[in-house]
């Protein structure tokens, strides 16, 4: 599993480097960059990453990293938002009350 994680990470970094330089992200170029970095990546991984990114706006992908899930998850989240918000408010309200000191240590 660690090997797959390293392979995927190498492909991600290679794709980001290519994108940053304004170069088309292809399997061959991912392979070239990962090999130059000393990481052996099976050709299938480079092909998967290049295929996945071929029809994707990488800038939008980068900018949406911290924004949570995609648009499809929004309706499901909206349906359960009220109970979740109520559950979140209870601990906050409880934290606002000052804690009373215990008489046990006297």
In terms of topology, how is this protein built?
Layout: H1 2-20, H2 27-36, H3 43-54, H4 58-63, H5 73-79, H6 81-96
Helix pairs in contact: 1-2, 1-3, 2-3
Which key features would you list for this structure?
106 residues; mainly alpha; 6 helices; 66% helix; elongated
| Global Rg | 24 Å
Query: What series of H and E elements makes up the topology?
Result: HHHHHH
Spatial gap, N to C terminus: 56 Å
Form type: elongated
**Computed structural class:** mainly alpha
Main sheet attributes: strand count, strand direction, barrel closure:
none
Count every beta strand, where a strand is a DSSP E run of 2 or more residues: 0
Q: Spans of 5+ residues with little confidence (pLDDT < 50)? A: 73-94
* DSSP summary: helix tally: 6
Percent in helix: 55-70%
pLDDT averaged residue by residue:
76
* Portion in strands: under 5%
What would you note in describing this structure?
The protein is mainly alpha-helical. It is 66% helix and 0% strand. The chain is built from six helices and no strands. The longest helix is centred in the first third of the chain and has 19 residues, at 2-20. The model is unreliable at 73-94 (pLDDT under 50).
């Amino acid at each position: 599993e660690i090997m797959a994680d390293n392979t995927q990470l190498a492909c991600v970094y290679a794709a980001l480097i290519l994108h940053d330089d304004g170069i088309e992200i292809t399997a061959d170029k991912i392979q070239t960059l990962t090999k130059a970095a000393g990481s052996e990546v099976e050709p299938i991984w480079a092909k998967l990453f290049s295929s996945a990114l071929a029809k994707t706006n990488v800038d939008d992908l980068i900018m949406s990293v911290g924004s949570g899930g995609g648009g499809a998850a929004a309706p499901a989240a909206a349906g359960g938002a009220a109970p979740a918000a109520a559950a979140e408010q209870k601990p906050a309200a409880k934290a606002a009350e000052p804690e009373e000191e215990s008489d046990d240590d006297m």
